[in-house]
Amino acid sequence: MKRFKAILAAALAGCLLMAFTACSGRNNNTTGGVTIPSPNVNVSDAADAEEESITEKLRALAEGAEGEALISSLESSSGNTATGSLEVEGNTLVVICTYQEEIPEESMDTVSEYLDSALETLDESFQPMVAQLCEEVGGEVQLRVEYRTMDGESLASRTFTQGE
Fold it and tell me: Which residue has the higher pLDDT, 74 or 95?
């Protein structure tokens, strides 16, 4: 889990740094496994129970010491210009980075492009994290990274799944 936190924090910090470069005021020309249910169990009920179990494991991870350490690391690596939070939506762990500085309207598109590009290039970095999460919770898990403005407006979002 420590390795997961370190890699995730580094990857998210890289995305944050790229976005802040876009806002820096400089003139940039860049654009930028199978379970067989017992005979008495309805298959859909078994699938629902498995998803609920994965959701609960993800929630425990997000609300536990590992989640708190991840958020703390993320926030400090951003120079405290962004806050982080973890949410769980079914089998998806959502990492939310919210900027605590106003992003000028004229820079919004540039920031979004940089963040989208950064998330796309970090796909190979996030694959081992997703695999580790799947192993830890014992099922298929997704990891979604979202960047938002202070007002909650989405700047960029990408969902990472195992093996894609």
Answer: 95
